[in-house]
């Protein structure tokens, strides 16, 4: 796996010029790191298994020690197109308690503006600057690496979210939805001509991926030396609540398969994003808590970056999976959902 640029110099550029962030893919070894064995949490917490504690005294265990919450969206704030019960009230209480909040999603199909509309449609008034989508991360990475100054354009496998974010930074692009109906000439002597000005191929989740797009990306990377950028590597996603669907890992895998190259990944998990938040808001990362419903992305993002982490059971991870001996990724705490942040110990006990 190739890491997005993470040198001090690149970070300085990032912090000086943009609100951009890039993301480094976690190592496989990190995925199996066990944490939490000796953490000095309250004696009142309840050790269950693998040193994972269910949140029982949220004020003392969490709210008193956290200034910034980073929320994954699907499975934490909403499920599909349905807001999880009680979320608006809980977010209001967090704001009243002067907690900063950021909403992070690896889904690149929408831009930040697109996500703002989704928040609006669900009745949540979230400022756009609190939203970090992987479509924004891709644009931010191009901005960080001064791609625009190269005079090149990007080729997109992905949906409108990436296009809208590139529009905002003035980077020209081709592909994306415009190529969803195309087929290459595969008759005798047939070939696909590509634009020699393509300097980057961005691969995001694309419900209309086809062989034309794969071949175009392959030629740009293999023949034109375009940089291979992936918004994220999620294996599965939740198009519907009826089953898991092949995620962007499948699109990225197709391009890896025909180029032999590893992408620069710009989605979660992101050390530079945390460094950006630390710098911009002057917060100590030990007082940041990552809240998500996935162990291998959200919780790992937290543990890899020295944050607190909290797993909610309102998404894809069951309590059984969390507490299974096979699971080695352990958050500091877990809770049924984020409404538990304001439950008293008595009400938490009553609800179990
Ligand atoms: Mg999620």
UniProtKB/TrEMBL annotation:
SUPFAM superfamilies: HAD-like (SSF56784). InterPro entries: HAD-like_sf (IPR036412), HAD-SF_hydro_IIA (IPR006357), HAD_sf (IPR023214), PGP_euk (IPR006349). GO terms for cellular component: cytoplasm. Residues 1-20 form the signal peptide. It comes from the Eukaryota. Divalent metal ions. Mg(2+) is the most effective. Keywords: Hydrolase, Magnesium, Metal-binding, Signal. The active site is at 72 (nucleophile), 74 (proton donor). GO terms for molecular function: metal ion binding; phosphatase activity. This is Phosphoglycolate phosphatase. It comes from Cylindrotheca closterium.
């Amino acid at each position: 796996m190739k890491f997005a640029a993470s040198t001090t110099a690149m970070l300085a550029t990032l912090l000086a010029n943009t609100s951009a962030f890039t993301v480094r893919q976690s190592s496989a070894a990190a995925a199996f790191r066990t944490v939490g064995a000796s953490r000095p949490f309250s004696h009142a917490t309840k050790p269950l298994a693998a040193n994972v504690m269910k949140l029982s005294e949220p004020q003392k265990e969490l709210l008193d020690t956290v200034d910034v919450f980073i929320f994954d969206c699907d499975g934490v704030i909403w499920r599909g197109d349905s807001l999880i019960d009680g979320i608006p009230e809980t977010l209001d209480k967090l704001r009243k308690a002067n907690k900063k909040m950021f909403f992070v999603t690896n889904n690149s199909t929408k831009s930040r503006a697109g996500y703002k509309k989704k928040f609006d449609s669900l009745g949540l008034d979230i400022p756009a600057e609190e939203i970090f989508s992987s479509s924004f991360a891709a644009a931010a990475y191009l901005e960080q690496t001064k791609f625009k100054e190269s005079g090149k354009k990007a080729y997109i496998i992905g949906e409108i979210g990436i296009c809208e974010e590139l529009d905002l930074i003035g980077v020209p692009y081709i592909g994306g939805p415009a190529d969803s109906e195309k087929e290459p000439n595969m008759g005798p002597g047939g070939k696909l001509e590509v634009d020699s000005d393509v300097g980057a191929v961005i691969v995001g989740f694309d419900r209309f991926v086809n062989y034309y797009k794969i071949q175009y990306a392959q030629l740009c990377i293999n023949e034109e030396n375009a940089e291979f950028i992936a918004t994220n590597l999620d294996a599965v996603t939740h198009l519907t609540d009826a089953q898991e669907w092949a995620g962007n890992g499948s699109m990225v895998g197709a391009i890896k398969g025909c180029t032999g190259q590893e992408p620069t990944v710009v989605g979660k998990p992101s050390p530079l994003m945390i460094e950006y938040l630390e710098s911009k808001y002057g917060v100590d990362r030990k007082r940041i808590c990552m809240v998500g419903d996935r162990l291998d992305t959200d919780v790992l993002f937290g543990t890899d970056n020295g944050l607190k982490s909290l797993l909610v059971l309102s998404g894809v991870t069951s309590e059984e999976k969390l507490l299974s001996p096979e699971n080695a990724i352990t958050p500091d705490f877990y809770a049924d959902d984020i409404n538990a942040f304001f439950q008293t110990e008595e009400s938490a006990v009553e609800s179990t």
